[in-house]
Amino acid sequence: MKFTYLALKTVVAVWLATAAVAENFTLAVPPWFHNSGLSDVLVPQIKTDTGLGVNRLVVGTGQLIRLGKAGDIDAILVHARAGEATFVAEGYRTRRREITFNDFVVIGLKADPAEVQFANTVGECFGALSGAPALFVGRGDDSEPHRRGQAIWKKAGVTPDPAWWRELGFGMGATLNTAAAMGAYTLSERASRLNFGNKDGMAILFSGDFALQNQYAYLAINPASHPHVAYKAAVTLENWLMSQKGQSLIGGYKIDGETLFTRNAKVR
């Protein structure tokens, strides 16, 4: 009888623990992270390991931050350090959890008329693109690739000129397709490049500069700012992403045999 009672207590305790995180909650993620296919690997495993159902809301970087500040989602996975710092400073989250990073790459025709493949730094690369015998197309939206490109142009001391530079106002997929159609250069996340369907004549021509590193952080919304958020569920996911299991899945994910993400879980 004693064993039965203890066993029942254990079952109830496990059920209660699972019930505490079984609620669905919404995680806002940037388009490229969703399109990379990694989230399709992680979400079912998260459900299996924690009982947590993850609803993904796919929006651009600026919108991610705005949704978090408004309390319209429960957590964000974002790659915009300046925006994240402001987000934390204003009390919407008390800390950042760095999860993983990948990188941006410069893509263009394999013929490489601007010869950016010979650049030593991304500043040299962008300098070679200015006035080159080929166009450069940018997203022209509130995305991190657009912001990163703008920062690199500025640091390189180059003012983009409409004679060789176009802002499209498109997402990454459409920008890559347009670059291919126009024989233009563009800045893209590596994952988007590997998933890019129209690859004819296009190649990664420059990568590897530290300035192109693309760090991702997870921020659960502070319940002190928005008491209605599913904070316990958000912390459950946070812990899973930081765990050995979560980090192994992230670091082991590949497309066409190429690793996309470097795991680097830490608190900042």
CATH domain fold name of the largest domain? D-Maltodextrin-Binding Protein, domain 2
What would the principal axes of the Cα set say about the shape? globular
The CATH architecture category of the largest domain equals 3-Layer(aba) Sandwich
CATH class division of the largest domain? Alpha Beta
Number of domains: 2
Q: Mean pLDDT, nearest integer?
A: 85
Distance between the termini: 50 Å
Q: Count of helical segments?
A: 11
* Number of E-state strands: 12
Percentage beta strand: 15-25%
Descriptive notes:
It is built from 11 helices and 12 strands. The protein is α/β, with parallel strands linked by helices. The protein has 2 domains: 154 residues, 3-Layer(aba) Sandwich (D-Maltodextrin-Binding Protein, domain 2), CATH 3.40.190; 110 residues, D-Maltodextrin-Binding Protein, domain 2 (3-Layer(aba) Sandwich). Strands 1, 2, 3, 4, 7, 8, 9 and 12 form an 8-stranded mixed sheet that branches. Strand 5, helix 7 and strand 6 form a beta-alpha-beta unit. The longest helix has 20 residues. The chain is globular, with a radius of gyration of 21 Å.
